[in-house]
């Protein structure tokens, strides 16, 4: 038997053999949830909702416990017997991530579990203290005996507890089992950090007769593996890595898709072949890949084992795009054709195929798949059910939808669960502003379609369904027009709200609701006009994901802008645009003046969004850049998915700062490595300046902050001291500073894209300008570098040559020349002015 031996990584046990995930469907007697939630308090506030079926299921596990795992043939390719299943063991490479487990999105309820094992070698007998961090529940076994059972089951919330383990001299076999009730976004994970007694300990993995030196060599190559850039729009897709072989090819297999197509298991597969001694591989022209943000499972086979990792990029071939037609009506026609050809395989594409008289078999396949998804009451079913009444009303006689599928759609509508006070055992999420809107809209238009029929899940007639929906939609709109979006400026969720508004506008027979929907659409288009830059919607946001942060070309809001004003891009993503396209709604033409800012001018906007004045937002937009921030937003709190400060110069050239919520570069945690902050900073903006002050939670494992800074996308980049500078292709300039110094990542998937500043207390500054004002990047950099950033504990001061004395602190807001900036007291429409840049 050969072994690999590793040091602990900052005290963490990171080297494990990990089993495949065991998945068990959970069914229970349907229950009603009669207590209403305030859907306006945001996803963080709603996170305390507990599914009663989840609680009962996990209470039973806590009471009765779990059987012990039995590890057989403890090496890669071996197995573990657990809960009646033989689970294969795989070799896990941490790539810097100490967390093991499963992080995924589950549309329907499952009980998931997995096992892991490693060997801890100790030079003597000793007692160690281990910090166990768990999301879900876990048991730890030492040499076959259960030593720790810790099952807090606080959904997606990390719970920490210190335990002691008695190690003997020599090898100690450590096993773990992890489990969780999976619903929607689910994190079932643990990490083990030895906080006392770690000296001299090592981790050992049994590897059979495998060549461990070769495995180490391949691991190092995979660590450096990266797409050449995050966004490809023309030419070829290229990968780079430190090739481990000089005299033979190094082959990497990729299998991936957009998010929606991943759920449908519709993957694109290809290989990156690095010829011997070569560090670059061409995967093919951009036109050979699907459109959108693509997430790939990357595998490399070596010594009869498979090493896994994840890589992503956005693919958006300009060659597929149309030149925007002159009118909204003409652009809608162009958009239908684009979606029919390049859209994801869901109801959005089915609708496009119907409008373009597309292939009947493809329409049939997509609709059957979508009906099955909704009949399972998968989470987000409400997003797609809204299309069915329109299809039935407008395409029943077209010959494009079979009679069988039409009947299936009707039954799907009649049998659906339209609110949480109806019985169900599903994992659908009702407790956010966008989902509440969608459920109420679906209920209203379904009741209007079938007024006299009995809806089986509630026992109500269609007329009663309408009455109930109206009773919930009216207060929803009252709150919305007063508060706006709690999840402000959200690239993934603003399109869902647009989906609800446009579906309601296009389909309802109720005049009051149609007018409310029109007013709401007017607001969205004005909001997009103010907060988009050249049609790209990439600003501070109440909720975002990796695919939105790094998918600016194909984000749905850019598609909404393109149809409305011919600015932005067409997209594969149809949410938000499809009902806008099948409606007769057209946005106000005068919003175009808010999209475009003349050189030498600036648009300055202040607004307050959400329940109880949740977020105070500022935007400063010139002809060269847009800077935005969520000012004084809950500094020091654990973050969720908020993007609190963001500068955008184009779809590819943008900069934002965050505290990683996890070590995994491509994990699903909320917050994740790039989306959201583990600990929220104090952020303040004044015109083209923004400060971001972090004091990280001492218990958070990630002890650095970082900025997304895509060096290869900018026209020019300079580094001087604690500052980095960049010039965009359109003449925008940015200076970015970190008080603890800045290190540019030069290897791996964040190579030339990430600026890291180590330390738990750190002040970041961003200062934007333009060639119009500064003349050159070099002149701008020289001017900024002459200025002192004075920091005294939690206080800081910066003398800006144009703006004056800017001062702030972690505990209070920004002052400009001794006067506190005013951020609060606005409404979601906000106040904007045009001023000199």
Task: Provide the descriptors you would attach to this structure in a database record.
837 residues; Jelly Rolls; Immunoglobulin-like; 4 domains; 13-stranded antiparallel sheet; 9-stranded antiparallel sheet; 20 helices; 33% strand
Task: List strands and helices in order, with pairings.
Elements: E1 3-7, E2 17-19, E3 22-25, H1 42-46, H2 52-64, E4 70-72, E5 79-82, E6 85-91, E7 100-122, E8 126-135, E9 137-142, E10 145-150, E11 159-167, E12 170-196, E13 202-206, H3 212-224, E14 226-227, E15 231-232, E16 236-240, E17 250-257, H4 259-263, E18 268-274, E19 280-285, E20 292-302, E21 305-315, H5 328-342, H6 347-355, H7 360-375, H8 381-385, H9 388-395, H10 403-415, H11 433-449, E22 454-455, E23 460-461, H12 462-483, H13 494-507, H14 511-531, H15 546-549, H16 556-565, H17 578-582, H18 592-595, E24 601-609, E25 615-621, E26 626-631, E27 645-648, E28 654-658, E29 682-686, E30 689-695, E31 704-708, E32 716-720, E33 723-727, E34 732-738, E35 743-744, E36 754-758, E37 761-770, H19 771-774, H20 777-785, E38 789-792, E39 795-800, E40 804-809, E41 812-816, E42 819-820, E43 831-836
Parallel strand pairs: 15-21
Antiparallel strand pairs: 1-13, 2-6, 2-7, 3-7, 4-5, 5-6, 7-12, 7-13, 8-11, 8-12, 9-10, 9-12, 14-16, 16-19, 17-18, 17-20, 20-21, 22-23, 24-25, 24-43, 25-26, 26-27, 27-28, 28-31, 29-30, 30-37, 31-36, 32-33, 33-34, 34-37, 35-36, 38-39, 39-40, 40-41, 41-42
Helix pairs in contact: 5-6, 5-16, 6-7, 7-10, 11-12, 11-13, 13-14
Explain this structure.
Helices cover 25% and strands 33% of the residues. With 837 residues, it is α+β, with helices and mostly antiparallel strands. It has four domains: 3-208, Jelly Rolls; 213-318, Immunoglobulins (Immunoglobulin-like, Sandwich); 321-583; 601-836. The protein is globular, with a radius of gyration of 27 Å. It starts with a strand and ends with a strand. The relative contact order is 0.08.
């Amino acid at each position: 038997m050969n072994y690999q031996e590793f040091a602990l990584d900052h005290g963490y046990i990171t080297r494990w053999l990990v089993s495949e995930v065991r998945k068990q469907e959970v069914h229970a007697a349907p229950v009603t949830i009669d207590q209403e939630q305030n859907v306006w308090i945001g996803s963080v506030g709603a996170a305390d909702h507990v599914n009663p079926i989840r609680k009962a299921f996990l209470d039973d596990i806590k009471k009765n416990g779990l059987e012990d795992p039995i590890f057989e043939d403890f090496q890669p390719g071996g197995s573990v017997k657990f809960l009646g299943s033989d689970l294969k063991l795989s070799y896990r490479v941490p790539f810097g991530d100490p967390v093991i487990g499963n992080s995924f999105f589950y549309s329907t309820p499952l009980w998931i579990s997995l096992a892991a094992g490693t060997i801890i070698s100790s030079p003597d007998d000793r007692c160690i203290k281990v910090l166990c961090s768990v999301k879900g529940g876990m048991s730890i076994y030492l040499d076959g005996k259960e030593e720790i059972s810790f099952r807090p089951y606080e959904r997606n919330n990390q719970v920490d507890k210190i335990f002691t383990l008695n190690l003997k001299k020599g090898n100690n076999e450590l096993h773990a089992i992890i489990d969780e009730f999976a619903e929607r976004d689910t994190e079932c994970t643990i990490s083990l950090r030895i906080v006392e007694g770690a000296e001299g300990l090592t981790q050992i993995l049994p590897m059979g007769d495998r060549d461990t030196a070769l495995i180490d060599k391949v691991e190092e190559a995979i660590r450096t593996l990266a797409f050449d850039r995050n966004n490809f729009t023309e030419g070829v897709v290229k990968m780079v890595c430190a090739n481990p072989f000089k005299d033979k090819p190094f082959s990497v297999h990729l299998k991936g898709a957009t998010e929606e197509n991943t759920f449908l298991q519709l993957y694109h597969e290809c290989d990156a072949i690095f010829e011997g001694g070569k560090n670059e591989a061409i995967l093919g022209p951009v036109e050979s890949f699907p459109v959108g943000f693509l997430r790939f499972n990357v595998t490399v086979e070596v010594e009869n084992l498979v090493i896994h990792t994840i890589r992503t990029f956005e693919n958006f071939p300009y060659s597929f795009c149309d030149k925007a037609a002159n009118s909204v009506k003409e652009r809608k026609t162009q958009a239908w054709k684009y979606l029919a050809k390049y859209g994801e395989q869901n109801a959005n594409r089915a609708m496009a195929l119907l409008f373009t008289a597309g292939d009947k078999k493809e329409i049939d396949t997509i609709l059957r798949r979508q009906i099955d998804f909704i009949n399972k009451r998968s989470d987000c079913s409400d997003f797609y059910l809204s299309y069915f009444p329109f299809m039935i009303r407008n395409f029943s006689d077209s010959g494009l939808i079979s009679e069988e599928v039409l009947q299936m759609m009707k039954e799907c509508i009649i049998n659906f669960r339209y609110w949480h006070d109806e019985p169900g055992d599903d994992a659908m999420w009702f407790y956010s502003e966008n989902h509440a809107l969608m459920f109420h809209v679906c209920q209203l238009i379904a009741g209007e379609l079938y007024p006299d029929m009995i809806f089986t899940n509630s026992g109500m007639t269609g007329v009663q369904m309408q009455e109930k929906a109206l009773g919930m939609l009216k207060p929803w709109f009252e709150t919305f027009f007063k508060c706006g979006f709690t999840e402000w400026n959200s690239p993934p969720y603003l399109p869902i709200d647009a989906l609800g508004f446009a579906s309601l506008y296009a389909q309802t027979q109720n005049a009051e609701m149609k007018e409310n929907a029109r007013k709401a659409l007017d607001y969205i288009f004005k909001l997009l006009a103010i907060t988009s830059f050249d049609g790209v919607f990439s600003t501070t946001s109440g909720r975002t994901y990796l695919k939105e942060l790094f998918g600016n070309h194909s984000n749905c809001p850019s598609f909404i802008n393109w149809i409305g004003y011919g600015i932005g891009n067409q997209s594969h993503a149809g949410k938000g645009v499809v009902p806008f396209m099948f409606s007769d709604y057209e946005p106000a033409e005068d919003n175009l003046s808010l999209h475009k800012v003349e050189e030498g001018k600036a648009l300055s906007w202040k607004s307050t969004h959400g329940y109880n004045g949740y977020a105070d937002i500022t935007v400063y937009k010139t002809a060269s850049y847009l800077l935005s921030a969520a000012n004084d937003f809950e500094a020091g709190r654990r973050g969720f998915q908020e993007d609190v400060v963001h500068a955008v110069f184009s779809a590819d050239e943008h900069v934002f700062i965050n505290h990683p919520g996890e070590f995994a570069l491509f994990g699903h945690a909320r917050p994740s490595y790039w989306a959201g902050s583990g600990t929220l900073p104090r952020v303040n903006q004044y015109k083209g300046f923004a400060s971001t002050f972090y004091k990280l939670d001492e218990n958070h494992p990630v002890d650095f902050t970082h900025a997304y800074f895509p060096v290869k996308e900018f026209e020019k980049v300079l580094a001087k001291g604690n500052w980095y500078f960049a010039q965009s292709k359109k003449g925008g300039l940015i200076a970015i500073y970190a008080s603890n110094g800045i290190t540019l990542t030069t290897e791996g998937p964040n190579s030339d894209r990430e600026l890291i500043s180590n330390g738990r207390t750190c002040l970041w500054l961003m200062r934007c300008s333009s060639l119009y004002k500064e003349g050159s990047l070099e002149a701008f950099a020289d001017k900024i570098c002459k200025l002192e950033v004075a920091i005294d504990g939690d206080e800081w001061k910066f003398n800006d040559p144009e703006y004056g004395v800017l001062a702030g602190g972690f505990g209070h807001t920004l002052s400009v020349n001794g006067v506190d900036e005013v951020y609060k007291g606005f409404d979601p429409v906000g106040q904007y002015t045009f001023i000199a840049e």
